[in-house]
Amino acid sequence: MKQQLPHDPDPQGQAPGLKDILRRLPSVIGEAVKGKAADIADSSKLREDRVPLDWNEASARTVAAEIEDLLRRGPAARALLEGSWSEQDLALAEEIALATSRAGSSNITRTEAYLACYQAYPELQWAFLAHMVSRNAGWNMTDLRGRLADLLDENDKRSFYRFLERSNALIFQDAYPQLMLYMKSRELGSSQFHLLPFFHVSRFMRPFWERFWIDRGSALLTVGLIINEQNYIEKRVMRHPYYQKYAADKASFHLNSLAGLNQIVFPLWEEAADGDEESGPPQASEGGDRAGGRRVRRLAGRVVSDFGSLADRIALGKGLYAMLMGLRAVKSGAQRFADRVPHSGSRADYWPELFTANKEEALTSPVQGSELLEGETLPLDARLYSPKLLDAWGDTPYEPITREDWLRDHSALDGISAPQPPYLCDISREHRGGILKAALAHDVAAGGSGAGNADGGLGGGGDDGGGEL
């Protein structure tokens, strides 16, 4: 562990100002560089044991050819796909529509629904990826009422929340009926994918599901869903005039790169030691440990380079999938976390050593960066406030949604290729660095940084090589 230096309190009893924060930056940057090197080393270990994704290139070419044929045939192909539906078809479709409405009421219910799909049918690997990414959406939403509350005005908070919520809700509305159709097909013993047009699913997806029904090729279906869902929100959210004006184009929107909102993390739950009880979420104590050791010590994940780019979002999704399902340690650790920790939207779900959903345990000081510079954990009564999602925002009603098919040209085929895990997949220290940068920005906004240790680390990266958060 890194040796902690004593406090250097201001002799006047006041918090040092911006100059003190700037004085600390070299040591903060130095620790970030060390942390990056440690994350690279840990990433190499994660990549050692791989799980085959069973990508079938022949199936991929077949699906691509069928989509090209749909494009050549134009609107007439859409009419043929819809056909006529029987009373039994319509009854099944209405049942799925009702289930989608009920499960789509909030980020919490959507996230739970994705996990239930994956647990029932593990070949639906996209559902597990969606579950983990949806957890991140919830954490980003509560950040707006927690650690970023003082960095944004109320209008910006609401605009960014609506941007995140709208994306999360629309993807669920489009994808969940598809997952349900597969599960109903399994129950009935026959394909029900002729009902996809009932839910206004793009004709792009029909060949993927029909191929999946034949060979259960999880990787190809997952890539298809990633391409579909990102195209689905491209016009409805990313290029929508409201979000262009009030979220995506605003200078303050770029706070995401400062505050860590551009990081998608997969908490990895470790195996319990002999005699240690594994059930239940990690419980915070004085030292931030539970039963002799924290259960989440590693975070796998990716940094989002350009969320505004459709191609980059598709590439990001494929990389996240290859990491989550193709690296054994990431897959098993994330599954254990998902099984043991219910999603609340609070970052205390995975990081109780630094965050709390209880305001009475939260840090009341106007400064945060100094506290984080001093060590890897925060005292029980001085943790960063990260509320539960329903406490922060509640449920958000659906808004009207355009129904046109996004498939227009052959560019949709560009992303149909085998997913590969990224080089850097352990971002434990980089994620904590993002939290620290947000805290330092908070300190600047508060007018000072408080007394603290200029040489404290970002957490992890010590000589013991433990790599704890």
From TrEMBL:
Residues 1-20, 274-293, 449-469 are annotated as: Disordered. Residues 1-10 have a biased composition (Basic and acidic residues). It comes from the Bacteria. Coiled coil: none annotated. This is DUF2515 family protein. It holds the Pfam family DUF2515.
